[in-house]
Design brief:
It is an enzyme of class 3 (hydrolase). 39% of the residues lie in helices and 13% in strands. By secondary structure, it is of the alpha/beta class. The radius of gyration is 21 Å and the shape is globular.
């Protein structure tokens, strides 16, 4: 008789990014092909975090430098791709520097990107992003992206901007790379950028673009729309997992260490070999699929609490594992 499917927490103590993950697919990406990888499946978050060596996720402690993600809890809700939203509710600035409740994002289904300058950044993970383009708007321009977490931080990135080489695209893709690589946890994430264009995209223009199907005020398609939609979906995904995202503008070239560091990395990235354009629409769909998977996991946890008499026995019998499925489940368990 197959075991009832309950909540699963996949702990990775040795892998590409150690931490606790809610789906096997996420865990598998960290351990398959990694020499000496170690992972184990648990039924509670506390056990998984203890095995990895993380502090309890409910401790409320902040860490601006740790590299491992804490466990996240997803709501049983699917992210719908860029449906119409109340712009005031989705992007309203917060009235204080207090770290927001994770439930705020979960209830709305959209991550509220705050616009104000924070008075107290001590409880936020801080990262700087920057884009650079030499010869912007001219033939033969070269662009790079930079992500700066700190001096000699392993998470720092210097990469060539893929596809079309413009400054605005490089600035946006630098934010993409933050959202793709930053640990997934409940620590609020503060992204600092000197790009007024990027700030305006998400603080000012995005709600109207969504309502108008990404058609601008002059009736033309919004530039960089697939890229902006992908960023929006990444932010929504983190919001549903309980993580607050704050985009904050900083003045460029004023001696602020993080901004200067990101600028140097972006300039270095511009000198790297060309990179092909990425398929932003396919990437967006992959994020949406992950979110749907989170919904199924939440619903499965609720179903696991039902008694056998509550279940459709015929469907239950049809759910017996095949040999291939059994082998996969054993791998998930870390056996």
């Amino acid at each position: 008789m197959p075991r009832a499917k309950g909540p699963a927490f996949y702990a990775v103590s040795k892998g590409r990014v150690p931490g606790v993950y809610l789906t096997w697919d996420e865990c598998e990406a960290q351990v398959v092909g990694y020499p000496g990888a170690k992972h184990k499946k648990f039924t509670t978050a506390a056990e998984a975090e203890a095995w990895v060596g993380l502090p309890a996720s409910g401790s409320g402690s902040a860490s601006g430098s740790r590299n491992v993600p804490s466990v996240t809890t997803h709501t049983a809700q699917v992210i719908k791709p860029h449906s119409k939203v109340d712009s005031k509710a989705a992007l309203a600035p917060s009235s204080s520097s207090k770290v927001p409740s994770a439930s705020d994002s979960a209830k709305s289904g959209k991550n509220r990107i705050t616009a104000e300058t924070l008075k107290d950044e001590s409880l936020w993970d801080i990262v700087y992003s920057d884009g650079s383009c030499r010869g912007n708007g001219k033939a033969g321009s070269i662009a790079g992206i930079g992500v700066w977490w700190g001096r000699n931080d392993a998470r720092n990135l210097a990469e060539r901007c893929p596809g079309v080489q413009t400054n605005n695209r490089a600035e946006l893709i630098a934010i993409v790379r933050v959202l793709e690589t930053a640990p997934r946890n409940k620590h609020p994430l503060l992204i600092k950028t000197d790009s007024k264009y990027s700030i305006s995209c998400f603080h000012d223009w995005l709600p109207n673009w969504i309502q108008n199907g990404f058609i601008g005020s002059k009736g033309e398609p919004v530039k960089n729309a697939p890229l902006i939609r992908y960023i929006s979906t990444l932010i929504d995904e983190r919001g549903l997992a309980g993580q607050k995202i704050h985009l904050q503008h900083v003045r460029g070239h004023t001696g602020e260490e993080g901004n200067e560091g990101a600028d140097r990395l972006a300039n270095r990235g511009a000198l790297m070999p060309e990179e092909p354009e990425r398929d932003w629409e396919t990437l967006e769909e992959e994020v949406l699929k992950r979110s749907r998977g989170s919904e199924r996991a939440a619903l499965g946890a609720a179903a696991a609490s039902a008694t056998l008499e509550d279940l459709d026995l015929e469907a239950y019998a049809a759910g017996l594992l095949s040999p291939e499925e059994l082998e996969r489940e054993m791998m998930e368990e870390g056996l």
